[in-house]
Write a structure and sequence with these properties.
With 580 residues, chain A is mainly alpha-helical. In chain A, 62% of the residues lie in helices and 4% in strands. The chains are: A mainly alpha (580), B mainly alpha (191).
């Protein structure tokens, strides 16, 4: 690989980490209700929202009340997204005249977008009307992200407050996250993306003649191309920032109208990680000790860089099966070489592998290369990052609250070893917190493995597989990993737009989202009531390199124990079969 | 229940739908059309007052006198810009090796005597099926064939390749690449 490729790989985490502190501090101000530079514009809007919704901005909620509000808001969102897809044929802003989406696909997509997964069973430009993309999908991109951030902030309050009962007000956290954080960032990013060539128009698809006419699969002459366009930039900005991932077009961020240049690619990649990384600083700021946030961010970053190395190396190796035909896969000054199937020429190997790692580390799921065509070990890197529980940065909010569950387990196990009562941030960690943390950590692997088993045992599940051999198993395992951790990317050869997969994956996405939010809020409700225990000689310091290493070890151990057998049947066997 | 749960949920969802679903995309569209009208509508290429394509969307080429782009897996025809898609073939799938073998054979048939190894991006399907670019290596590989098919001086073809090469953005980002449609349009203008 060229020096330029290495430089680009190094540049990405550096820029990201430079942005953590300013954005993290800003978000802490937003959630604690301090004034920000956007208050003159947005505070009146915020107050208007509360008045219209009958929200008392001084009232707070206990954890059950908070959880109920989350569930009510999301259930309603699910209904709206479902209905809009079913009636899009009768609504305006439907330039291509698309009819209703099928019931099972509508269910799946509604579940997918409210849970911040954005699994796409459908092809964007050939299924969804502009109206549906805007009112159903873009709206959920904002509010599902704001929901995740709200739950994290509620958990932070649990550790911040002493002997208290309430953990904040969901309506306020939801409103502030959307208005002060997501909207301004998305607005700026959309315009930057348009400057690079991302389309943003309400015009209908543009017909252009082909320079050299061609024939289609039936031998019919084709003399023109229909350029699918639409208000894409505004949706892409928020799908990246909100770790949503659901693209405007079927090819997602590989489509030149979604991601036209290397600069748009860098901006979109930064947007994937920006908020999840910065929230670590926000968390530290809120609990009054930013070192706590940095140490968690350090653990995430180390895991990220290690797995990134594996992905880049594997993709640059190329595909040994092609060598026999005189194909040149070696990197040089005139070509990136490597495994270029399912990749775009402007991104080459480095930027495709970097994106694949970023989008699976964060629970984003947008792609700029087709993951189904990754090398076995490149695919393993992406899949395993998802299976670790989406805690390496993870989703906005959900990544950090997932990682905090691992932190609780880490201090608990360390406490057992030395025979002391474990504590974290001055709060005693007891059986109740451990039970809830165990739920958060163990539920997703269970969903993934049981779902995969069900699919490969049933004819309907096996019918969707495209690639033969162990790679076909990988497609199914990847699908359930993605749904069971709310990622949304796919080994897209799997024909998942069938009643079986739409229902199975839809249910898995719902369980994986809400059965983690509820125990997370339960932890918040439990620790918020506890007294503060001053750190003593037996307290495990959670800001040392030792603890960072310990946390990484716990995450890897759980991820490896849960998934090594399944990974061995898929990518590992494929790698061995290919003699790589 | 109604007052503390359903009313805030319904009213806030309605307001967010208004702000993020309508106001936000409309405002972005308005500004985008004002500041970057060409980019926002698809970076269309105009020639003699007629739209001939988009600088960002590739077109299918398989005549020897044109540079060929990346293989495309879109259905029902290559480079269908209304249905973007990759092949999704796994690395161990025999269908992938068969396809690559056929593409190598087609390139060799169009250019007998050229025994140089084929650059990988020229025989592997792009992620979108609409990739407008090929690597410089893939353009250099095809240049002698195109020059011969058109009876053009190799130097002129090399010059056009260079003119349609995009370097790393800001000198650093991405991969150097050649825009196939723009290059072929430039070739057609020479004659």
């Amino acid at each position: 690989m060229s020096a330029s490729s290495w430089l680009q790989l190094a540049l990405y985490p550096v820029i990201l980490l430079l942005l953590v502190r300013p954005l993290g501090a800003y978000m802490a101000r937003v959630y604690t209700g301090e004034r920000t530079f956007l208050h003159p514009v947005l505070a009146p809007v915020e107050q208007l929202f509360y008045r219209a919704a009958g929200v008392n901005s001084n009232a707070e909620m206990g954890w059950q009340g908070y959880a109920l509000a989350v569930l009510a808001f999301n259930l309603l969102g699910w209904g709206v997204v479902y209905i809009l897809q079913r009636i899009q044929g009768f609504l305006p802003l439907n330039p291509q005249g698309f009819g209703a989406v099928t019931p099972d696909s509508s269910f799946n997509t509604a579940a997918s977008f409210i849970t911040n997964t954005n699994w796409q069973g459908y092809g964007g430009e050939s299924t969804m009307s502009t109206m549906t993309q805007m009112l159903a999908l873009t709206v959920q991109n904002f509010v599902s992200a704001a929901t995740g951030m709200a739950v994290l902030v509620a958990l932070a309050r649990g550790f911040m407050r002493r002997s208290a009962r309430t953990i904040g007000n969901f309506w306020i956290d939801l409103t502030r996250g959307t208005l002060y954080i997501l909207l301004p960032l998305a607005f700026v990013l959309s315009l930057l993306l348009v400057s690079q060539g991302v389309v943003q128009t309400f015009g209908s698809y543009q017909a252009t003649p082909l320079v050299q006419p061609t024939v289609d699969a039936d031998g019919q002459a084709v003399t023109q191309q229909m350029l699918a366009v639409g208000p894409a930039a505004s949706q892409i900005a928020i799908k990246q920032l909100g770790t949503n991932g659901g693209g405007f077009f079927n090819a997602n961020s590989a489509h030149p109208f979604e991601n036209p240049t290397p600069l748009s690619n860098l901006l979109e990649m930064l947007a994937i990680m920006l908020i999840p990384a910065a929230l670590c600083y926000t968390f530290g700021k809120m609990i009054g000790d930013t070192r706590q946030g940095w140490s968690i961010l350090a653990a995430m970053t180390i895991l990220f860089v290690l797995i990134l190395g594996l992905a880049v190396w594997a993709e640059q190796q190329g595909n040994p099966a092609l060598a026999a035909f005189g194909v040149d896969q070696a990197a040089s000054s005139v070509q990136p070489g490597g495994n270029m199937e399912g990749k775009e020429a402007r991104f080459g190997i480095a930027n495709s592998a970097l994106w694949a790692t970023a989008t699976t580390a964060a629970s984003n799921g947008s792609v700029n290369a087709m993951h189904d065509s990754l090398t076995p070990l490149g695919g393993l890197a992406a899949m395993w990052l998802i299976q670790l529980g989406e805690v390496v940065y993870g989703g906005v909010g959900s990544g950090l609250y997932g990682m905090l569950a691992f932190v609780i387990v880490a201090v608990f196990v360390a406490g057992l070893m030395v025979g002391r009562t474990p504590e974290y941030l001055g709060k005693k960690i007891e059986a109740y917190e451990m039970k809830m943390a165990a739920l958060v950590i163990l539920l997703p692997p269970m969903l993934v493995l049981l779902g995969t088993a069900l699919a490969v045992l049933s004819p309907a599940g096996r019918a969707g597989i495209l690639n033969p051999g162990p790679h076909g198993f990988s497609e199914v395992l990847y699908a359930f990993s993605s749904a069971g951790n709310n990622n949304g990317s796919a080994f897209a050869g799997l024909s998942a737009n069938t009643p079986f997969y739409n229902l199975a994956l839809g249910v898995v996405m719902l369980v994986a989202r809400y059965w983690l939010i509820i125990p997370t809020l339960a932890i918040a409700g439990s620790v918020v009531a506890k007294k503060h225990v001053p750190a003593g000689a037996g307290t495990l310091p959670t800001t040392t390199p030792l603890f960072v290493g310990w946390l990484i070890a716990i995450v890897i151990t759980v991820g490896a124990l849960s998934f090594l057998p399944a990974l061995a049947l898929g990518p590992v066997v494929e790698q061995l079969m290919m003699g790589m | 229940m109604l007052k503390t749960l359903i009313r805030p949920a319904a009213v806030l969802l309605a307001l967010f739908t208004l702000v993020t679903g309508l106001f936000y995309p409309l405002a972005v569209t308005g500004l985008a059309q004002m500041i970057f009208p060409a980019q926002a509508t698809g970076s269309l290429i105009e020639q003699h007052g007629r739209i001939v394509g988009s600088a960002l969307i590739g077109q299918p080429f398989d005549a020897p006198k044109y540079f060929w782009g990346r293989p495309s897996a879109t259905a029902p025809f290559a480079y269908n810009a209304a249905a973007s898609s990759g092949s999704n073939l796994g690395p161990s799938n025999p269908a992938l090796t068969d396809a690559v073998q056929a593409r190598v054979a087609a390139l060799r048939a169009a250019d007998p005597g050229n025994t140089a190894p084929v650059p990988v991006d020229l025989v592997t399907a792009s992620a979108s099926g609409l990739d407008p670019h090929i690597s410089i290596a893939a353009a250099l590989y095809q240049a002698p064939r195109v020059a011969r098919a058109r009876g053009l001086d190799a130097l002129i073809v090399a010059q056009l390749v260079e003119q349609n090469t995009e370097g790393r953005q800001l000198g650093l980002l991405g991969e150097p690449r050649v825009n196939v449609l723009k290059l072929n349009l430039a070739l057609d203008r020479v004659e």
